[in-house]
Design brief:
This is GNAT family N-acetyltransferase. InterPro entries: Acyl_CoA_acyltransferase (IPR016181), Bact_Acetyltransf (IPR050832), GNAT_dom (IPR000182). Keywords: Acyltransferase, Transferase. This protein has 324 residues and is α+β, with helices and mostly antiparallel strands. Strands 1-2-3-4-5-12-6-11-10-9-8-7 form a twelve-stranded mixed sheet, sandwiched between helices. Helix 9 crosses helix 10. It is globular and about 65 Å long. Bound molecules: coenzyme A (COA). The site of coenzyme A has 22 residues, from strand 4, helix 3, strand 5 and helix 4. Coenzyme A (COA) binds next to strand 4, helix 3, strand 5 and helix 4.
Length: 324
């Protein structure tokens, strides 16, 4: 069985790829919804704007038994890590297929001038010993939390909104940040120091706009609520409502710049977001979020809003020089 590159996958290959994802999902119970064939096709055919994707698979006759996708954001040679996802059909595991696909991806990373790669996996699954055996180290634990909106009493949101911190005003927008707030939003994003350091690329107004454009080109809606202090952003929260979400929205970034912390700015902007979504997107039933496992403040804010922990995932990273 050879590793093949699927630079322009055919319909049959996309269906075969989907069968691998479906078999992996059936065997590894996870909180994520089961993959659907259209979602797989979109994933394989449409790399996000600003990113490229490379695909490899191991074929056994006409079937695929293992697949790997490598996402490369930014230009070749930038210091952003590539993102790898390897999936091996449960009956074909422990035969070195995962290792061979990772080796193919390592070549792809080298060819693109990358110096590191990351992978996000569920805690307690075979992915952990697999990645650790291949030179990866855990750089972040993420706690996956879910808020079911019908379990949030409206009076909780109203109370949190009424407890506005003194001296702050709310501002909100849909899509790309208004020009007057772009630089301040980038500064506030930079306040997520642990993530910024780990992603290796600084936030600036250009990257903030680029991220919003990526969401819009996917057909998804980005909502931002920010707290202004003296006309500049002190904290903000972002939600993305995917066009095909079936009622599930995703929490994107939330941050409060250091000098404004400890004044309940974070929970206030999140409560304002819940009130806005209730009016604007009544179809949204729940919101999912991943929090850094050591971000006790953000987890406490989310628990106070009503989020509950669903799963723990881990971000693994490897330097290219450590890969096989
Ligand atoms: C993680 C996964 C890709 C591994 O694929 P695989 O083809 O079984 O892995 P390999 O056979 O290449 O294993 C290479 C080494 O990883 C380690 N390893 C892999 N699976 C392991 C397990 N279940 N327990 C302990 N060690 C394991 C071993 O050291 C193994 O070498 P060995 O078999 O010589 O001991 C596969 O289990 C899978 O598809 N999981 C679900 C999807 C997923 O979580 N993907 C995220 C990874 S980016």
């Amino acid at each position: 069985m050879d590793v093949i590159a699927l630079d322009a996958p055919t319909d049959a290959q996309i269906r075969a790829w989907h069968e691998v994802l479906a078999a992996v999902h059936a065997a590894d119970p996870a909180a994520d919804p089961a993959p659907d064939p259209e979602g797989t096709a979109r994933l394989l055919l449409g790399a996000e704007p600003g990113a490229r994707q490379r695909l490899w698979a191991v074929a056994d006759g006409g079937r695929l038994v293992a697949v790997a996708a490598l996402r490369l954001s930014g230009e070749p040679g930038t210091d952003r890590p590539g993102e790898i996802d390897v999936q091996v059909h449960p009956v074909h595991r422990r035969r070195g297929l995962g290792r061979r696909l990772l080796a193919a991806a390592a070549e792809g990373l080298r060819a693109d001038g990358r110096s590191s790669v990351i992978a996000q996996v569920l805690a307690g699954t075979p992915a952990v010993p697999f990645l650790e055996s291949q030179g990866f180290e855990c750089v972040l634990t993420l706690r996956g939390m879910l808020l079911r909106l019908d379990e949030v009493p409206p009076e909780r949101v109203a109370r949190l909104l009424a407890e506005a911190p003194a001296g702050y005003d709310l501002v909100r927008w849909r899509g790309v940040v208004p020009d007057e707030h772009a630089a301040a939003l980038a500064r506030a994003k930079h306040a997520m120091a642990d993530l910024a350091e780990y992603e290796g690329a600084p936030w600036d107004a250009h990257r903030v706009r680029e991220m919003a454009e990526v969401v819009a080109k996917r057909g998804d809606a980005l909502y931002t609520v920010a707290a202004l202090h003296g006309g500049t952003i002190a904290g903000f929260t972002e939600i993305v409502v995917p066009h095909d979400s079936a009622g599930r929205a995703a929490q994107y970034d939330t941050a409060v710049v250091p000098e404004h912390r400890g004044r309940r700015v974070g929970i206030w902007v999140k409560a304002a977001m819940l009130a806005w979504l209730a009016d604007e997107c009544p179809g949204v039933r729940d919101i999912e979020t991943d929090n850094s496992g050591d971000n006790a403040h953000m987890i406490a804010v989310n628990e106070e809003l009503g989020f509950r922990t669903e799963r723990e995932s881990l971000e693994y990273q490897a330097r290219i020089t450590d890969l096989p």
